[in-house]
Amino acid sequence: MQCKTDALIIIIYDMTVDLQEMFCKQKGYLEEELDYRKQALDQAYMQIQELEATLYNALQQDKVIKYGEPLDELQKDELRAAVEKLRRQMLRKSREYDCQVLQERMELLHQAHQVQFMTRLIICNIFSCM
Fold it and tell me: In whole angstroms, how large is the CA radius of gyration of the chain?
């Protein structure tokens, strides 16, 4: 009986160590993903700023080179609105993706917590039966 109990304790200990390693890996993956998303969001902000600067420069000119005629105030307002709409869409898509990634990671961590809880419960039951 003692041999079986010792073997079971070793197995459970190994499972606990594996779980701890899994937590560390998941945390590392989550941090890497967040860093990547932060960089992507920073790049999106830079692109937005470039678009805004281009728009500002175009609005400051009397002529639009592509069409050869100046923009009236209504066209300028429409152009501003279109750029703002594009900016909001880019930010929304980025946030949606961030939320999806975080939700997936949180589900994985929740599952790992459940396994760890069950392992601890088994260990407690083993020691209480001795």
Answer: 28
What is the mean pLDDT of the segment spanning 90-102? 82
The answer to whether 26 and 112 are in contact (CB under 8 A) is: yes
- Tell me how far apart the alpha carbons of residues 75 and 19 are, in angstroms, rounded to a whole number: 60
The CA distance from 107 to 114, in Å, is: 11
| Greatest distance between any 2 Cα atoms in the chain | 93
For 68, the token pair is 């050869």
Looking at residue 97, its amino acid is Y
What pLDDT is attached to residue 65? 47
- Indicate the pTM of the whole model: 0.44
Amino acid identity at 70: P
For residues 3 and 22, what is the distance between their CA atoms, to the nearest angstrom? 28
CA neighbor of 2 nearest in space, from 126, 121, 125, 122: 126
SS3 assignment, position 106: helix
Rounded Cα–Cα distance for residues 104 and 75 (Å) = 44
Is residue 92 classed as helix, strand or coil in its secondary structure? helix
Q: Which helix (H) or strand (E) holds 96?
A: helix 73-129
